[in-house]
Amino acid sequence: MTDQDGPQYQQLLARKVEVVNVGLEGFVKDLRDCGIDVVHVDWKPSAGGDPQMAALLAKLGV
Amino acid sequence: MKLIEDANQQALERILEGEPRLIDIVPARELIPGLRERMILHAGPPISWDRMCGPMRGAVAGAIVFEGWAQDLPTATKLAASGEIEFHPNHHFGAVGPMTGMTTISMPLFVVENARFGNRAYCAINEGLGKVMRFGGNDASVLKRLAWLRDVFGPTLGKAIRAAGGIDLKSIVARGLSMGDELHQRNLACSSVFLREIAPWMARTSTDNAVLAECLAFIGQNDQFFLNIAMAMGKAITDPANGIRGSTIVTAMCRNGTDFGIRVSGLGEQWFTAPVEMPEGLYFAGYSEKDANPDMGDSAIVETIGLGGFAMAAAPAVAGFVGAGAPSEAGNFTRAMGEITVAQNPEWTIAAMDFAGVPTGIDIRLVVDSGVVPVINTGIAHREPGIGQVGAGVVKAPLACFQQAIVAIAKDLGVS
């Protein structure tokens, strides 16, 4: 984020915030506790983040 | 990768096109070439006596006494430990067995024929609840029941099955799914439908009313009677799908109380194993997790064809029984298994899922990619031999089996 993004960023937070949370579910509770609407997407990196296995899977067509 | 997609399509078609029929009950020695005296087939991937868990050892000792290879259990245990008994997996002989999965020469086995491909698969008769050999039971009551199954029940039911010209199994499963069975921890509907079909034939072929009544009552009093038929059916369905080069579809999952093993179509007879996990579930009064044995049995063959934990949505009552959450959450299990399978079975549908087919064709690539592993509904055995079932629950297949298989199939296909 740069200084130029500042006003736009502030404008975003000035409106009602709605969040799509991808991955770690722990953030969902914190946001909901603040009264923010959250949609959680259950996502994990391929092969649990194992780069070698993920590369192998990619070659096998996943 | 086109080779894999084509191979998987072929494996899936073979699974879906299976036409399993129960055609007979025959003593194991007449069915299985190579099965001899002092040879025991067990559940799960290969295992030696020194690595067997308590219930498996208990069942082995009981089977040895049952076959007359030793006079009593202590002598049988010494014989098993001496190396004079050969141990092999059921799967190596076209068979499957629940929990400890004991198969020896004189035991009567269900014969399921896959009429589409001409292959056959076998499974012993379900002994009922309570103290039974499949949970490691081995006392006189267990052996007496096995002798009755061998001498009375097996021949009586076998005669009726032959007279009926065999029993179509797919239609029974379809009806059972619509009546609340998932075919692993609930077989009440399928057992009842089976009894309704076979009872007239038993009446026509039996010459002794007392025996007939005893046999009918044995089926009628055992809600899990159909499980062993469903297991032989699963093996008969998956065997033709094995050995298709490049296919990443799972063709067997099983456990021996120590290791969990899988087979993958493109890798043929090879086993990929990892330490088996403890089931999470509910325990009968007086028992707890500290009494439990790690998971056992070839019965995960029903999950391999989309039933059991994969069809949990069909059996919301089971979700509560196995401690998997509220009945309303049963659908989550079936939806999750949809993430790791390549198709649905249009002949086996679940009303509660708007008649979606059961998730079928576990793809090891999808398992490793997502980290979602197959869930298996299971009984829980006491860790000590001779006690029996202490609960029921859900166990997860270890991810390591699938990771090993990915590496192996990549190597086989020259991918690195």
Summarize this structure as a short list of keywords or feature phrases.
heterodimer; A: 62 residues; alpha+beta; two-stranded parallel ribbon; 3 helices; 2 strands; 42% helix; B: 416 residues; Enterococcus faecalis V583 fold; v583 fold; 2 domains; 5-stranded mixed β-sheet; 4-stranded antiparallel β-sheet; 14 helices; FdrA domain protein (chain A)
Spell out the blueprint of helices and strands.
The complex is a heterodimer of chains A (62) and B (416).
Chain A (H helix, E strand, L loop, with lengths): L5 H9 L3 E5 L3 H8 L3 E5 L9 H9 L3
Parallel strand pairs in A: 1-2
Chain B lengths: L1 H15 L3 E8 H4 L7 E4 L11 H13 L6 H9 L4 E4 L5 E2 L11 E7 L4 E6 L15 H24 L3 E2 L1 H9 L9 H18 L3 H12 L4 H14 L11 E7 L2 E6 L7 E4 L4 E4 L12 E2 L3 H4 L11 H6 L8 H9 L2 E10 L5 E7 L1 H7 L4 E7 L7 E8 L2 H14 L4
Helix pairs in contact in B: 3-4, 3-5, 5-7, 6-7, 7-8, 13-14
Tell me what the structure shows.
- The complex is a heterodimer of chains A (62) and B (416).
- In chain A, strand 1 (18-22), helix 2 and strand 2 (37-41) form a beta-alpha-beta unit.
- Chain A has 3 helices and 2 strands, in the order αβαβα.
- The longest helix of chain A has 9 residues, at 6-14.
- Chain A is elongated and about 45 Å long.
- Chain A has 62 residues and is of the alpha+beta class.
- Helix content of chain A is 42%, strand content 16%.
- Chain B has 416 residues and is an alpha+beta fold.
- Chain B has 2 domains: 19-233, Alpha-Beta Complex (Enterococcus faecalis V583 fold); 242-412, v583 fold (Alpha-Beta Complex), CATH 3.90.1700.
- Helices cover 38% and strands 21% of the residues of chain B.
- Chain B contains 14 helices and 16 strands.
- Chain B has helices at 2-16, 28-31, 54-66, 73-81, 140-163, 170-178, 188-205, 209-220, 225-238, 301-304, 316-321, 330-338, 364-370, 399-412; strands at 20-27, 39-42, 86-89, 95-96, 108-114, 119-124, 167-168, 250-256, 259-264, 272-275, 280-283, 296-297, 341-350, 356-362, 375-381, 389-396.
- In chain B, the strands form 5 sheets. A 5-stranded mixed β-sheet of chain B has the order 4-6-5-1-7.
- The longest helix of chain B has 24 residues, at 140-163.
- Chain B is globular.
- The relative contact order of chain B is 0.16.
- The chains are: A alpha+beta (62), B alpha+beta (416).
- At the A-B interface, helix 3 of A face helix 13 and helix 14 of B.
